[in-house]
Amino acid sequence: MEADSIACMSLSDGTAVDDEVTVPLSKPQGGRIGTVDGGGVVPPTTMSPASSVHELLECPVCTNSMYPPIHQCQNGHTICSTCKTRVHNRCPTCRQELGDIRCLALEKVAESLVLPCKYFSAGCPEVFRYYSKLKHETVCNFRPYNCPYAGSECSVVGEIPFLVAHLRDYHKVDMHTGCTFNHRYVKANAREVENATWMLTVFHCFGQYFCLHFEAFQLGVAPVYMAFVRFMGNEHEAKQFRYSLEVGSNGRKLIWEGIPRSIRDSHQKVRDSHDGLIIQRNMALFFSGGDRKELKLRVTGRIWKDQQNPGGGMSTTTPPYHLCT
């Protein structure tokens, strides 16, 4: 695959769960956290240091917070239920047999706590009851992002600047600045392309990063190609932008316009939802010209930032072009 040209052009900027506690959290002083007392929260100064309590609830094997059932050996050493199987029912501290003893006292202590989200240092201001905390952290807007690279299962996670560098240095993804793009996809024998995935470009505009994807797969019994854009950020930020994709030749064209999906959604999820420009193989070969065997497909596109209407809604009117800054 090759990128023919990248033009630096853009568009004008436009003018509860019942048991959850979601109160704003100030940075703890002295490492202390409050506990629930009736319906309220006891001031942190009346409690033991949070680090002491939290250490009691930390599994000695995986170091994660323990959730019921919490197991203990005859000597009182505790372990989480997942690691109990991993250590073959032997206490990792004293090597005694664990058996099926529950540490009910520690489970009760856990029920009394409210704790900050594990992503507090990343900016999450909320605290939760102990058993709601884990559920929140799986969907927290401040959690790190998974690597958005398509075509392999990459386990790397991190913040956006780190992932951009990771994509460039490790996955060797092309990096471009600009809000318009013009790519040509070439394949000598298009009929050999089945379930192929390409992540061609990460491009930077409006101070944000976007990923351009192009894939080949079976849609029912029909082989198709699909192009789409993902936004390197959360879902709320993604909705501030729109993008268009266009492919065509011989006086015909297909045009797609949509909102980029956040990289919180995997490229597989976006593909399976058909949220992008889908081109049937026969149409792609028609656009390619020639003997209809070799794929020579040119896809052009652009991104713009939605303008705010006076009433607060997002404008769907395409604003005029202006040079990127």
Report on this structure.
The protein is of the alpha+beta class and about 325 residues long. Helix content is about 20%, strand content about 35%. The chain has eight helices and 21 strands. It has helices at about 50-55, 80-85, 105-110, 130-135, 160-170, 235-240, 265-270, 280-290, and strands at about 1-5, 10, 35, 40, 70, 80, 115, 125-130, 145, 155-160, 175, 180-185, 195-205, 210-220, 220-230, 240-250, 250-260, 260, 275-280, 295-305, 320-325. Strands 11, 13, 14, 15, 18 and 19 form a six-stranded mixed sheet that branches. A hairpin with a 2-residue loop joins strand 16 (about 240-250) and strand 17. The chain is elongated and about 80 Å long. About 30% of the residues are buried.
